[in-house]
Amino acid sequence: MAAERGARRLLSTPSFWLYCLLLLGRRAPGAAAARSGSAPQSPGASIRTFTPFYFLVEPVDTLSVRGSSVILNCSAYSEPSPKIEWKKDGTFLNLVSDDRRQLLPDGSLFISNVVHSKHNKPDEGYYQCVATVESLGTIISRTAKLIVAGLPRFTSQPEPSSVYAGNNAILNCEVNADLVPFVRWEQNRQPLLLDDRVIKLPSGMLVISNATEGDGGLYRCVVESGGPPKYSDEVELKVLPDPEVISDLVFLKQPSPLVRVIGQDVVLPCVASGLPTPTIKWMKNEEALDTESSERLVLLAGGSLEISDVTEDDAGTYFCIADNGNETIEAQAELTVQAQPEFLKQPTNIYAHESMDIVFECEVTGKPTPTVKWVKNGDMVIPSDYFKIVKEHNLQVLGLVKSDEGFYQCIAENDVGNAQAGAQLIILEHAPATTGPLPSAPRDVVASLVSTRFIKLTWRTPASDPHGDNLTYSVFYTKEGIARERVENTSHPGEMQVTIQNLMPATVYIFRVMAQNKHGSGESSAPLRVETQPEVQLPGPAPNLRAYAASPTSITVTWETPVSGNGEIQNYKLYYMEKGTDKEQDVDVSSHSYTINGLKKYTEYSFRVVAYNKHGPGVSTPDVAVRTLSDVPSAAPQNLSLEVRNSKSIMIHWQPPAPATQNGQITGYKIRYRKASRKSDVTETLVSGTQLSQLIEGLDRGTEYNFRVAALTINGTGPATDWLSAETFESDLDETRVPEVPSSLHVRPLVTSIVVSWTPPENQNIVVRGYAIGYGIGSPHAQTIKVDYKQRYYTIENLDPSSHYVITLKAFNNVGEGIPLYESAVTRPHTDTSEVDLFVINAPYTPVPDPTPMMPPVGVQASILSHDTIRITWADNSLPKHQKITDSRYYTVRWKTNIPANTKYKNANATTLSYLVTGLKPNTLYEFSVMVTKGRRSSTWSMTAHGTTFELVPTSPPKDVTVVSKEGKPKTIIVNWQPPSEANGKITGYIIYYSTDVNAEIHDWVIEPVVGNRLTHQIQELTLDTPYYFKIQARNSKGMGPMSEAVQFRTPKASGSGGKGSRLPDLGSDYKPPMSGSNSPHGSPTSPLDSNMLLVIIVSVGVITIVVVVIIAVFCTRRTTSHQKKKRAACKSVNGSHKYKGNSKDVKPPDLWIHHERLELKPIDKSPDPNPIMTDTPIPRNSQDITPVDNSMDSNIHQRRNSYRGHESEDSMSTLAGRRGMRPKMMMPFDSQPPQQSVRNTPSTDTMPASSSQTCCTDHQDPEGATSSSYLASSQEEDSGQSLPTAHVRPSHPLKSFAVPAIPPPGPPTYDPALPSTPLLSQQALNHHIHSVKTASIGTLGRSRPPMPVVVPSAPEVQETTRMLEDSESSYEPDELTKEMAHLEGLMKDLNAITTA
């Protein structure tokens, strides 16, 4: 109807009538055909339009049963109404005399009481509806198939079975496919209700999942197809209790290949049984299917997969995988999805004139590919010279005649169904000529050029129009004896020649020419008879070219004789070429088959054949491709490696054989292994073809095993690798941490090489998988080589002579690399002239032009894995979408760091799309790029990716450690240094260690932390004229690095006003003049003395010292009980001098800012007391604890008493608040105390009860168990004669100690470490004892601790004691202090009297 409306609109427009007038003026019979309603007709002619004629309803495939009724629908539209008829199997049905079949008013066919038996099937077949309109034409519908279900027959029946509770069961019931929709099941003679647990598969099979007791009973299936129901055998299903034992996993029903049409539903059956009960998963083409979130994929009872509304994308191979935890089995099936024919382009209605050529277009799709046939008015169009199928499905009609008019239908058909689409052809009459002269016949028509396939005609103008400038010409031609005439028009007016193409050789054609002017066509010329030249015919293509693989190295090709070609075929030439190459080979063949041998295994080749006759080679056949058969691999797997995991397992890794040697699809690998001592006992393991590693477990401890691997194809096993051995560990070693440092490293330099040898780490309980050797000029990070863990030496080659190389050795395992061991060596100079390099001169060659470069890899990414490892991944756009490498290409990864700037690239090759770059420097930015190489073709470098390795603890100490004295302050030194060369991260701080004994244990050195990245630090209040040793350790976020070598520095000697420019410490505004004399402890006297006077003074002082010692000893003896003496002796023996040996004069320990309590000069090592008491107190006690000194010393004490505030603002020193909570308390030995050091005399107190004293006893007590005790407690000890020297460290004080305390034990409460100790605090832990000095690691830094006892190695600084007094906010009563001072002054007077005497 749309076409009719279009035609009517066209007829009503002025442009259409103008077009018709032009046609009348030219009367051009060769005008182009008009489509879809544009009728090129003159106004005078009768107007014809296209008539709508089509089917409203077409019959569809129908399933019926015997004895039932069937309606095949059909309805067509046309004006007038069409006549409807039916065809069955291509023959018209006579419905007039048929009492069972009748035509319904709408055109449908009704069949009552369908007849169907084994030998009589009159109703089953293919039906087609035919609609006809007189004087218009005929159309036919699609073909519909009527299927009548046969008599019920069981091809398999259910069988008795049993099932364990909770498991799956199936019952078979197979009938003919057309009866499946009529199958149902009964349990105990009652209809069985189906649900999610009990289902019926499309085949009729019953599936029961998760069986329960209620599922037991008698089952049978019933077929009801119209007649009486047909029953299967009745069988019993028993449900058994769960035996709780493992049973084998088996398939009860496996999927089978299926074919479905787009839009249908499909069920892939899969049911498994076993104990434990298995679970079912599905995969499609190696991709797991998500049945939970998909709307179209449903997992049915038992594990079957249902796919609804199938699409073409659902086609593929489906894998059913059953797993019950103990074992896994799988089955697969192919799903093929087909599609009914569908029109992409339908034929359209056409207007045309006689003698014209037209083409009906028809484009279809479907799966399988549909075949197309054409029908005209219900009759098949048979291809001929004038009816041709062009461009696969289009119909071309040449030289139209009136009888060609009608309805043409394109019918597409495949295995799934068929479809039709039609169009109408109308042949228009030529318009009658208008009044006016018409041209006469053209003159002298001749064939000026005659060839085999074309003829050129020329002529002269008609006599009636000698000029002929406005004449056009039409050439009509036909084969002799054929009534159908074709026409060819000249291209522009006045042209008097035309070339007729596409003629047949040696064929007679009849030509005539007509001229047209504005009034119409004139007379026709006389017929001209012309015969085309005979063609020297070459052979056509050989038909039915086939090739098939006869063996892995041969292919047989067959063909037939060409259909066209004059003369006898002399021979054939068979061309063949390996797929992917451009080199074609050929062989001459005289027969119709040939077998080519010597081909590559499992390789695709293409073949074509050319026939030869006496005229030469003919037309080549299209290429035919075939692949040679697969065979066993011809090479072993590559890169076999073994990795010992523990004492009972070894991991094996390998790579597939080279692609050219695989000879087929690798289906698996065979691993064989045996003990090295037992050659015959071989164990074999098979793994899948995609697996490239396998863990072999259950091996014996400390045993050497040999391994080899071979690849498998479906043809068998290929050659195996050589035996590779590895030895399991004797015991399960630790691989949760990196190996320790190798125990030794030796180097032997040569001229251009260095021989490196080493021994393994001393701790053999940590796994070592190999050693990393780093070397370079000045730095060991230029090159890194990794060797096997069994190797003990290595020769570093290609070195420069006379060069200083630094070499590092690290053991590594899967966790990482251990601590490095460093060594340096200088290669020898060139002394032997025989070692001159030899240069090889290459002969000149002709350069080969570079092949086309490949595309570089894309998407390069760097993933940081550790401090020295980065994984590089990339994609290759020249690979298929699945990114699988199937050829011999490889990739080159290069990397470098920009620090230093001239660093060279390092390269490595990879055959996969990732590479693990190891041996990198920690905390270093690297750039990476990748290129691909295939044969002689390479790509450019890809875009770069960047990655920074993780930090690692510093692996080298701080450099250039220097110590200088601060100008004007002899007790203050400045330590300077440079960062470590291998910081391996951002330095977050340093720790300065210093001591007066370079051989002391490191935990006995004084600790001075430096926060941040400062490279200088001041240390104050050191002892003058004393050698110190300094070490520095750097730290970052990963931990501490190694310490630097010890640097020695001796503090300067102190000088008075006449000294060397060193001045005394600032004594503060509260300085008080000394009670007698004004000399500093180490200063010079203010008045000149001769040598004799100086000698007298020294002798006098010595005598006085001895007398005072005797007095003090007698005094202490009187005040100490024998029991207390025993205690003191024992405790002193525990805390004896084990760290500092020799004369105290040899070493002058530094002032450690520790408050010294008592100094005792008794021979403590001889004391019989096993339990001396150790106390801590804020200030010194009495005169019994000190060595007597002269007045000058005492005056210095008063000088310093109030000088603390003057030192709080020293440069680079932490404030008091900043120190708190940062420095631990320390316990220090007292044994190296020099007796000549000055201390402050302290008063004694006799008022404390003895019960407040602390005791020292067991070995299990912690040093910090004794908290700060008060002055009162300490004084009681002094009164009791228990005078063990101790010191007290305030927690807010800078860390200046030789030891770090252990972690405090649980028990007594401790007070805030930021507070000074007070007398009231002494009673908190009086009964907690302490033992000999213990030390702790530096890990206790930063933890706040309560005060603890410290054994003091040097005399106290009174200045620091004075600070403590100030900070304690006057913990002592004024009268107590007065009493103490009076006692001290009395002693000094006695001393002066003795001196005067």
What does this structure look like?
This protein is mainly β. It is built from ten helices and 91 strands. The strands form 24 sheets. It has a six-stranded mixed β-sheet, with no helix packed on it. Strands 13, 16, 17, 20, 21 and 22 form a six-stranded mixed β-sheet that branches. Strands 24, 27, 28, 31, 32 and 35 form a six-stranded mixed β-sheet that branches. A hairpin with a 2-residue loop joins β50 (546-551) and β51. α6 packs parallel to α9 (1358-1367). The longest helix is centred in the C-terminal third of the chain and has 28 residues, at 1091-1118. It is elongated, with a radius of gyration of 56 Å.
Q: What's the short version?
A:
This protein is 9% helix and 36% strand. It has ten helices and 91 strands.
Which structural traits does this protein have?
1397 residues; mainly beta; 91 strands; 9% helix; elongated; disordered N terminus
Distance between the termini: 152 Å
Low-confidence stretches: 1-32, 41-45, 832-850, 1056-1089, 1125-1372
Number of helices: 10
Our Rg estimate from Cα atoms comes to: 56 Å
Sheet-strand content, in percent, reads: 35-45%
Structural class: mainly beta
Assign a percent range to the helix content.
Answer: under 10%
Question: Please, what is the average pLDDT?
Answer: 75
Which sheet architecture does the biggest sheet show? 6 strands, mixed
Question: How many E-type strands?
Answer: 91
**Strands in their spatial order, largest beta sheet:** 1-33-41-40-36-37
Globular, elongated, flat, extended or rod-shaped: what is the shape?
elongated
